[in-house]
Amino acid sequence: MVLTKEYRVCMPLTVEEYKIGQLYMIARHSLEQSEEGEGVEVVENRPCEDPVHGKGQYTEKHIHLSSRLPYWIQAICPRVFYVIEKSWNYYPYTLTGEWPLRIPPHFCSFIPKLNVLIKTKYEDNNGSTENCLDLSEEELKTRTVDHLDIAFDDLSPKHYKQEEDPKFYKSVKTNRGPLIEGWRDTDKPIMCSYKVVHATFEVWGLQTKVEDFIQRGIREILLLGHRQAFAWLDEWHGMTLEDVRDYERQKQAETNQKIHNTNGVANNDEAAAAGDASVGDVD
User: Fold this and answer.
1) Per-residue confidence (pLDDT) for residue 113, from 0 to 100
2) Which of 12, 171, 212, 237 is the most exposed place for a label (fewest CB within 10 A)?
3) What integer pLDDT is reported at residue 214 of this predicted model?
4) What does the pLDDT look like over 76-115, one tens digit per residue?
């Protein structure tokens, strides 16, 4: 059974502003999270086009995370481990996984039965659209909705920084913040990221535990990333799309260099293993 959750994350921004803020946040966040030789390596980042959604940006990333997994997952994984993520960004609609090819959406180098598919859409409202991503009646029956509050939901202590806490942050450029209780019903502007996550892990005895671990991990990343996007508002507000793409390329190069510098020998082993595994993993 596929575990399906819909996360709704409101931000005190417009959808147009968030387009810039999201790109800035992902690039900076990825670099900061790669301090120990594990993190997000960008393999490809290029323009793409879809007959329905129009022009967009295609990105392929390798997410290196072996030592960050819980012990019960590390026990069934080799020392070298990563997730391949493919994303099509047709803003304000994005799809993360393998699409439109009929390939497992989000597959691991050594665990081909782990699949994650994420559909996202952004709207200028406070999360009030009931079926933003046009889920089927069957999907709606099994969907659970989680409204994230970037200011008042608990964040893991290891990720908490007071300067990134929306309850304390005030933007000089826009005069937005700090956020107070009930801000999603009163603050303007307001937008919402609607994100539907389908997660499956078809291994008997571990399926429920792994799928729950994936969803909890995604929730934490969403909460942390959106808090940072708001707390860094004065650093990206006013950037053009060209400006933020230049920043993105710079940070991606720094991140890739950091991963390879600290993970050099492992990356060679990994590349060979991935070559062997990917042929059998893709149906």
Assistant:
1) 64
2) 212
3) 82
4) 454 445 678 899 999 999 999 732 222 334 444 445 566 7
